[in-house]
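Researcher: We're teaching a course module on how sequence relates to structure. For the next exercise, students receive a sequence and then see the predicted structure as tokens, so they can try to spot secondary structure elements on their own. Here is the exercise chain.
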Amino acid sequence: MSRRRGSRSRGAQSINDYNRFKTSTTYGNHLSTISEKEKAEINAGVQNILSEIGFEQLPKFLECFVDNKTIIKKNNRFCFGLELIDDCLKSFNNKILLHQQNRENYLDLSKGNVYFGTGGAAPLILDYERKVYRPSLGKDLLNAARVVDRLDNLSFFSRPLVLTDIADPYLMDIYTAVISLSATNKHVMTSVANHKTVKSLAEICYLIAGGEDAFRRSPFLSLNINFIIPPLRLDAEACEVMRESVKYGIPVMANVFGQRGASSPVSIVGSVCQTIAETLSGLIICWLLDPDSKVICGPRAMVTDLRTGGMAGGSGEQAQTTSLLSQMMHYYKIPNSSIAGASDSNIPDYQAGYEKALSIATSAQSGANLITQASGMLSGLMGVSLESFVLDNELCGSILSSMRSINVPVLTNDLESIRQVIEREKHFLGEADTLKRMSTDFGYPKSAKRLSPELWMKEKDNTMLNEARKSLEKILSDNFQSHLNSEILRKIETDFDINLDVIYRQK
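Model: And here is the predicted structure for the students to work with:
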């Protein structure tokens, strides 16, 4: 057994460039672009879709709920009863904590906190030096998790890429989960193609946690489940995945991906209304299975470039749509996630920067709890960049700083300070409070530059991207050593017939 399975080296432990267990205390819902009356009108539309328009088909496990009150068959479609909807929205579990593996740190979704992380299913990864994209591999997922584990403004690791080197869907899902869990302590989100795989993932999590009860108390893995095929069609297999996740105590990310003008109405109001109804159907299904199930709603109404039919994830229209969805989730007081940072640029350039800043900031200010795809994603979610993880971490840090709460009562002390300073030095640079707050109230970029024109002319190669590449090389310079116990990793390999050394040795 190689040293990769022991504890982290002293060198790795001593690197303090990143606060690996930073807990967010940033609250969203500051941005409000629709009135309470308009929210109530959208809700009325959502209720109409759920109770009158309904769904094309029903998963078999829900057939036992078909009656004249709970799930009602109308015109060969299946609708949720208004009383059921009301009961669910009044009593669903909104006290959700998503833990890290150390169990001491967690993401608290019950208080309106905002957290940034990764996400996606990119089949390509950017080789920036050669300016080409190549298929993403297991080693790339490992490196992505290692990098995100060390970035202080990214609070969770949602699988950002697919393993194109593993053809079997079951093995790809197992490898994806195990690689992610072995390379980061942060909360992991992944997905599975078949509901039978959920049991295997649960067994892996129980093994790492030290037992089923321990995992259920402090879940450090959750499943992204796209359970709807818009418009208004429940995906039978994905719903079975949702059912199994509830059964094994795995938090459910009930995600819906529609496209305005394609699979949902082109009107922003109609698209938002349909998307919320589809997302709430996942919450209702899980609530019927277990009222205490952990469900995070993920409404994603993606914007289409109507000239080409492709996505326009970096557009202002996308930011506006995402904002409305997040505001409606606050209306329902539902723990939720949104997608932001899906730049249409192919490289980490000015376009990527402004598109990501717009969508991520708008989503955070509108109150999304979990913002996925906030880091690393390019090319309309088709590509991922390790350099972008570092750059976007800095971007997310600036957004968090812009949303910090303020303490107005300290103004009394500030007024006294003003009186004293104007009688002495005429500036505040030497004040004790200035020195104290220098390290607490301000963020200092590691990659972004604040150079005078004279220094810039001398150091033209000292760019933000080059600094990000240096940080990336520093993080990945050591041989990988998992934080997981070597016996646990060995048992996982044996029980699930995988070979992690193959991944760790990839070049």
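Model: If you want an answer key for the exercise: Confidence is low (pLDDT under 50) at residues 1-24. The radius of gyration is 24 Å.
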